[in-house]
From TrEMBL:
GO terms for molecular function: heme binding; iron ion binding; monooxygenase activity; oxidoreductase activity, acting on paired donors, with incorporation or reduction of molecular oxygen. PANTHER family: THROMBOXANE-A SYNTHASE. Belongs to the cytochrome P450 family. InterPro entries: Cyt_P450, Cyt_P450_CS, Cyt_P450_sf. The keyword Electron transport does not apply. SUPFAM superfamilies: Cytochrome P450. It comes from the Bacteria. Keywords: Heme, Iron, Metal-binding, Monooxygenase, Oxidoreductase. It comes from Nostoc flagelliforme CCNUN1. This is Cytochrome P450.
Length: 328
C-alpha cells in the first residue's frame, strides 16, 4: 500500500494558508507532492484531509457507495452558509429524495423552456447600456444570475409572461454553437468557481487508486488541480478554448460542477444560462478592460471570483441580424 505525503507545516498554518491563498496553496502542494496529498486544514484538531486530482482517483471516489461515506460530518463548517436543511447535509434516502424533487426543474424540457426568458432578461438588464457605460462584470453577472433564477425557476412562469414577448432569436441554436461552448468550458476549466467537490468523510475504510483510507479521513476531489494537470491539459495556464473542440474530456478530467451522485443539480441550467447571456451580450456590445492590471482568482466565501470584479467599458455594436449570432 502506498504511503501518502503529509504536509509538515502546523495544521493551523495550513488552514490559514488555504483560506488566504487557496489557489496558490493548492498549486504549491501539487508541485511538491503530486496528484494526491494530505493536509490538515480543519483547524487545530483537523482530521487528515486528502486532496486528489488524478482522473483515476476521481473516478474511484465518485464510485464509492454513499453508505460508506459521511457527508454531514465533513461539511458541518458550511452550515452557516447553506442553512441546516440544505441538501448538502442530507444523507442516503433523504438526499436522493431531495435530488429527485429538485432535479426536474433544472433539466430536459424545463430547461429548454427557460431559454427565451434567459435571453429576454439579459436584454432587459443591458438595455440601458450605451457606449461609454462602465460596468463591473462580476457584479453584473451576479445580478443577472439572481434575476434569472428568481424569475425563471422560482417566480413568474414563462407561460404567463414570456410567451407574449417577441421571439428574439433561437436559444436552442445559440446553445449548440461549438466555439461559444468551448469558450465557456475553457473558462470554467481554468477558473472553476468551486475549487473542490463536497468533502466526504470515510466511515469505515475505503480504497482509492491503490491507497487505503480509514475512518475519519476526509476525501476531497480537487477540481482546481484536476483542471490544471499538464498530462490532461498541455500548457494548462493558457486559455485555449480549442482544446474543447479537438478533444472530449472524461467526467474525471473535467468536472467544474463536481460529479457522481453528489454532482451539482444546477450544472445543465448554469451552462445553458452562461452561453445564452454571453451570446446576447457579445452580439450587442463590445467590452474592453478599463484596468490593465491582471485579474487574479480570489476566494469569496467558498467560491472563487475575479479580483477587482473585472471593470469594463461598453461599446454598442450596430444592430445585428439574427443570422449573425448563429454564424459566429
Ligand atoms: C456556474 C455555476 C455553478 C457551479 C460552478 C456549481 C458547482 C457545484 C459543485 C462543484 C458542486 C459540488 C458537487 C460535488 O460534490 O460533486 C455543486 C453542488 C450543488 N449545486 Fe452547484 N454550481 C453552480 C450552479 C448551481 C445552481 C444554479 C444551482 C441551483 C439550482 C446549484 C445547486 C447545487 C446543489 C443543490 C448542489 C448539491 C448537490 C448534492 O449535494 O447532491 N448549483 N455545485
Amino acid at each position: 500500500m502506498k504511503v501518502l505525503d503529509n504536509l509538515r507545516t502546523p495544521s493551523l498554518l495550513q488552514t490559514l494558508q488555504l483560506i488566504a491563498q487557496p489557489t496558490k496553496t493548492l498549486e504549491n502542494c501539487a508541485a511538491k507532492y503530486g496528484d494526491i496529498f494530505t493536509m490538515r486544514v480543519m483547524g487545530l484538531k483537523s482530521p487528515p484531509i486528502v486532496f486528489f486530482s488524478h482522473p483515476q482517483a476521481i473516478s474511484d471516489c465518485f464510485a464509492i457507495p454513499a453508505k460508506k461515506l459521511d457527508f454531514k460530518k465533513a461539511t458541518h463548517v458550511f452550515k452557516p452558509l447553506f442553512g441546516e436543511n440544505s441538501i448538502v447535509f442530507k444523507e442516503a434516502r433523504s438526499h436522493q429524495q431531495q435530488r429527485q424533487l429538485l432535479l426536474p426543474a433544472f433539466h430536459g424540457d424545463n430547461l429548454k423552456s427557460y431559454g427565451q426568458a434567459i435571453c429576454q432578461i439579459t436584454e432587459e438588464v443591458t438595455q440601458n447600456w450605451t457606449s461609454g457605460t462602465d460596468i463591473c462584470i462580476h457584479s453584473f453577472m451576479s445580478n443577472i444570475t439572481l434575476e434569472i433564477i428568481l424569475k425563471v425557476v422560482f417566480g413568474i412562469t414563462h407561460g404567463a409572461r414570456y410567451n407574449t414577448l417577441a421571439d428574439i432569436t433561437n436559444p436552442e441554436a445559440i446553445t449548440q454553437l461549438s466555439y461559444l461552448n468551448a469558450v465557456c468550458q475553457e473558462t470554467l476549466r481554468i477558473h472553476p468557481i468551486a475549487l473542490i467537490c463536497t468533502p466526504r468523510m470515510v466511515k469505515d475504510r475505503v480504497e482509492m487508486m491503490g491507497h487505503e483510507f480509514t475512518s475519519e479521513t476526509v476525501l476531497v476531489p480537487c477540481i482546481y488541480l484536476a483542471h490544471r494537470r499538464a498530462e490532461t491539459y498541455p500548457e494548462p495556464e493558457q486559455f485555449r478554448p480549442e482544446r474543447f473542440l479537438n478533444q472530449k474530456f472524461s467526467p474525471y478530467e473535467y468536472f467544474p460542477f463536481g460529479g457522481g451522485y453528489r454532482g451539482c443539480i444546477g450544472a445543465a441550467f448554469s451552462m445553458y444560462e452562461i452561453k445564452l447571456a454571453t451570446a446576447i451580450i457579445l452580439s450587442r456590445f463590445e467590452l474592453s478592460l478599463t484596468d490593465k492590471r491582471p485579474v487574479h482568482p480570489v476566494r469569496r466565501g467558498i467560491t472563487i471570483v475575479p479580483s477587482g470584479g473585472v471593470k469594463m467599458v461598453v461599446t454598442k455594436k450596430a444592430k445585428l441580424k439574427k443570422q449573425t449570432i448563429l454564424s459566429t
